[in-house]
From TrEMBL:
GO terms, molecular function: hydrolase activity
The keyword Transferase appears for this protein: no
SUPFAM superfamilies: alpha/beta-Hydrolases
GO cellular component labels: cytoplasm; nucleus
Full protein name: Serine hydrolase domain-containing protein
Protein species of origin: Penicillium arizonense
Segments forming domain Serine hydrolase: 1-245
Domain of life: Eukaryota
Length: 260
């Protein structure tokens, strides 16, 4: 079992290894090879990350536009060709954007070839709305408004001052724009001309400002092949025993799908 690991913006492969250490310790002893790669661009740390981890920090692109994300997809495709194949991809935050883009562009442009990985685990991340629109998805005005507001809220809630002043209680989500909608109602805000059709596991936290992005991403994946789990926290991978057990369970399910 070979697992491609894509970190969040302003972190690194080494940091991602540390962030998932709790649930990794709960995985069975069979051979699993984790490939923790670094994005191609050095950058500033993600908000609050420098309190816990030393540089360097990396990103998969420098500008959040279609051309830059497509260039990152080309970079990843070349990396997989040299170092793959991969049974499973495990992604966090910006890594989810890159991984979902890779799957969508594969289905749109090279469906005759094997997918870049056989199954996917998305943690606290969504798809790129500009890439979805580029591919013909209908993104509602409400979805765009949540996306913009959530990015601002994340920078505030994850920042060093919030960490030092409030600790874990800093995570308050984006309640003003969630409006009590169910996950299915949120998924309906993006209409899909096609869906990601490999098995997917979606792990997100209701207190994460980017929670809706994670729900939206689950909505563009095949409902017959997806599992979801709300870990109840913020933009993080909680290390409590119960949550780590559940994430390990989700990982093993996705790994089994990728091994088929």
């Amino acid at each position: 079992m070979k697992v491609l690991c894509l970190h969040g913006k302003g972190t690194s492969g080494t940091i991602f290894r540390s962030q998932i250490s709790s649930f990794r310790s709960r995985l069975p002893g069979e051979s699993i090879e984790f490939d923790f790669i670094d994005g191609p661009f050095q950058c500033t740390p993600a908000p609050g990350i420098d309190l816990f981890y030393s540089p360097p920090y990396y990103s998969f692109w420098e500008r959040d536009d279609v051309d830059s994300i497509r260039a990152a997809y080309d970079w990843l495709t070349e990396y997989i060709a040299k170092n793959g194949p991969y049974d499973l991809a495990l992604m966090f935050s910006q890594g989810c954007v890159l991984g979902s883009t890779a799957l969508l562009l594969h289905q749109e442009e090279t469906p005759h070839l094997p997918p870049p990985f056989k199954a996917a685990i998305f943690v606290c991340g969504g798809a790129s709305l500009i890439m979805l629109e580029e591919l013909g998805f209908h993104v509602s005005a409400e979805a765009r408004a949540r996306d913009a507001a959530s990015r601002t809220a994340l920078a505030s809630q994850a920042g060093s001052s919030a960490v030092l002043a409030q600790g874990s209680s800093r995570w308050t989500g984006l309640e003003s724009l969630d409006s009590g909608l169910s996950e299915d109602e949120l998924r309906a805000e993006i209409r899909s001309p096609f869906r990601i059709n490999i098995p997917t596991a979606h792990i997100y936290g209701v207190k994460d400002p980017r929670y809706v992005a994670g729900v939206h991403l689950s909505g563009i994946c095949d409902p017959e092949k997806r599992r979801t789990y709300d870990h109840g926290g913020g933009h993080e991978i909680p290390r409590t025993g119960a949550v780590s057990d559940k994430i390990a369970e989700m990982f093993q399910w996705a790994a089994a799908q990728g091994a088929v």
